């Protein structure tokens, strides 16, 4: 006897998709909206560049470190309650960020905001998978790319406009405060629309594994944020070494967990697949370079040329729009035909755009925004080509029963890679910018970005040849959060 196919009505599918997309957009906006508020925040709280790095990158750090655990909690406790709890905590943490009286508390609340995001985000796709038929799911996921691409464009623009607007003298606090009414509306929407699922399985959550991966991530990002200002003392190198040991220990712990008959956070067989492991490195490199470069572009415009937050947000439009164009070309035309070569093509185009941008800034006397538009747009097109295909291409290395675990790991690596990118590129930029060499520092960051892209190209022949097909025989882009804008 066949099991009836689950199928929501078109109206129910639309509302479910709306509830999940609102949450995804909140996370995406929160990852990018703060970038243009950095100099205003620095003036208001008197923080150092290191404090600024923690405010911007700390969110991605705790988000990435908690994503896999958040997905597991959904399996254990039910997706709906974890989704609602994470959403409520996210709105509360946003309110606390807006009210923070000093940089220390702001960083603490920002880290808490990332933890809340890690609880709510993994549930969204799970809720769609649990309630939609395969063809409905394919249609729903096809909407993610354009909508999240629009969110990527709006993040810096909205953030800059809010800071410039300075309603009631709130300044940078508005970029956090805007999450509160949106979050509460999303909470009401989700409470009414997300179905109550079946009773959760009696599943033990691997708390020790979660602590290991979170500690290793903190040990990785801490010295990258603090090293430049501290003069790279011995403890920074010991911390980086301990991070590597921590990640290796996490992999070994997952194997031990399986041998003891318990459910691991991550399927251990993934670590034995060289193509997938290389893919993780590639994802970390790509998103670290992309997010880090876009952040220092904002610093360059505001600190070097006196752009307001709103003007700096608009200065990010060429790369954001280029990313949307590249993603459309890749997802609609190239990915299914070229396989992994689409990633190589996108990286080459991105590298050409970075080189163009570097050359255009050789002389910044009489600088105007039009100097960076062509190079930024070309780099954005290349990035969009890669973004649209990289997740499904890397997932081509794993078996069907490993896709869920592999997707969670990729999302976590993407987020942690972004946090590392913020630390590395901010360190490179501020090394010279603090002495007044803003343009030279930005060009140095572009050189680092070129090296990152070259490393991506170097390992790209080890990727799987083809992307993972969906249930209809085509390739469905995996929704990707935290794309730089």
Overview of the molecule:
- The protein has helices at residues 10-32, 38-45, 49-77, 79-99, 103-131, 134-165, 173-177, 179-193, 207-230, 234-259, 274-305, 309-315, 317-338, 341-360, 373-395, 403-433, 438-459.
- The chain has 485 residues and is mainly alpha-helical.
- The model is unreliable at 1-5 and 470-485 (pLDDT under 50).
- The N and C termini lie far apart (50 Å).
- Helix content is 76%, strand content 0%.
- Helix 1 packs parallel to helix 6, helix 3 runs antiparallel to helix 9 and helix 11 (274-305) runs parallel beside helix 16.
Q: What kind of sheet is the major sheet?
A: none
Shape: globular
How does the helix and strand content classify structurally? mainly alpha
Mean pLDDT: 81
Task: Report the strand count.
Answer: 0
Cα gyration radius (Å)? 21 Å
Report the helical percentage: over 70%
Low-confidence stretches: 1-5, 470-485
| Beta-strand fraction estimate | under 5%
Distance between the termini: 50 Å
* Number of contiguous helices: 17
Q: What string, H for helix and E for strand, traces the elements in order?
A: HHHHHHHHHHHHHHHHH
Task: Annotate the secondary structure layout.
Elements: H1 10-32, H2 38-45, H3 49-77, H4 79-99, H5 103-131, H6 134-165, H7 173-177, H8 179-193, H9 207-230, H10 234-259, H11 274-305, H12 309-315, H13 317-338, H14 341-360, H15 373-395, H16 403-433, H17 438-459
């Amino acid at each position: 006897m066949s099991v009836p196919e689950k199928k929501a009505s078109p109206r129910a599918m639309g509302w479910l998709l709306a509830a999940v997309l609102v949450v995804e957009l909140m996370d995406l906006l929160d990852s990018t909206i703060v970038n243009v508020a950095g100099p205003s925040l620095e003036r208001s709280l008197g923080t150092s560049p290191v404090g600024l790095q923690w405010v911007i990158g700390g969110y991605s750090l705790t988000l990435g470190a908690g994503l896999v655990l958040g997905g597991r909690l959904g399996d254990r406790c039910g997706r709906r309650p974890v989704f609602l709890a994470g959403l409520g905590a996210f709105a509360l943490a946003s309110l606390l960020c807006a009210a923070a009286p000093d940089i220390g508390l702001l960083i603490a609340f920002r880290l808490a905001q990332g933890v809340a995001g890690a609880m709510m985000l993994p549930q969204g796709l799970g809720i769609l998978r649990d309630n939609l038929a395969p063809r409905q799911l394919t249609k729903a996921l096809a909407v993610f790319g354009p909508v999240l691409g629009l969110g990527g464009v709006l993040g810096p623009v909205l953030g800059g406009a809010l800071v410039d607007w300075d309603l009631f003298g709130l300044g940078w606090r508005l970029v956090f405060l805007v999450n509160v009414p949106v979050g509460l509306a999303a909470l009401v929407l989700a409470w009414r629309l997300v179905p109550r699922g079946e009773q959760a399985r009696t599943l033990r959550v691997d708390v020790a594994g979660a602590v290991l991966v979170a500690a290793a991530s903190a040990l990785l990002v801490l010295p990258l944020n603090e090293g430049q200002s501290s003069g790279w003392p011995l403890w920074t190198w010991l911390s980086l070494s301990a991070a590597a040991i921590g990640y290796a220990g996490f992999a070994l712990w997952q194997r031990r967990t399986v041998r003891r008959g318990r459910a691991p956070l991550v399927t251990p067989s993934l670590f034995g697949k060289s193509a997938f492991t290389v893919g993780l490195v590639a994802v970390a490199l790509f998103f670290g370079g992309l997010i880090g470069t876009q952040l220092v572009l904002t610093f360059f415009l505001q600190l070097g040329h006196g752009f307001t937050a709103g003007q700096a947000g608009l200065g990010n439009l060429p790369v954001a729009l280029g990313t949307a164009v590249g993603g459309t070309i890749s997802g609609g035309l190239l990915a299914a035909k070229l396989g992994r070569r689409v990633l190589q093509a996108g990286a080459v185009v991105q590298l050409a755009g970075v080189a163009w941008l570097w050359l255009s800034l050789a002389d910044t006397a009489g600088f105007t925004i039009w100097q960076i538009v062509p190079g930024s747009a070309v780099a954005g097109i290349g990035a969009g080509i890669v973004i649209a295909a990289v997740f499904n291409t890397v997932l081509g290395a794993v078996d069907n029963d490993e896709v869920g675990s592999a997707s969670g790991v990729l999302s976590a690596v993407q987020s942690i890679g972004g946090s590392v990118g913020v630390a590395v590129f901010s360190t490179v930029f501020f090394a010279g910018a603090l002495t007044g060499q803003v343009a030279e520092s930005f060009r140095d960051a572009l050189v680092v970005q070129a090296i990152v892209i070259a490393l991506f190209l170097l390992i790209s022949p080890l990727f799987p040849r083809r992307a993972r097909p969906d249930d209809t025989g085509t390739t469905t882009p995996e929704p990707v959060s935290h794309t730089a804008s």
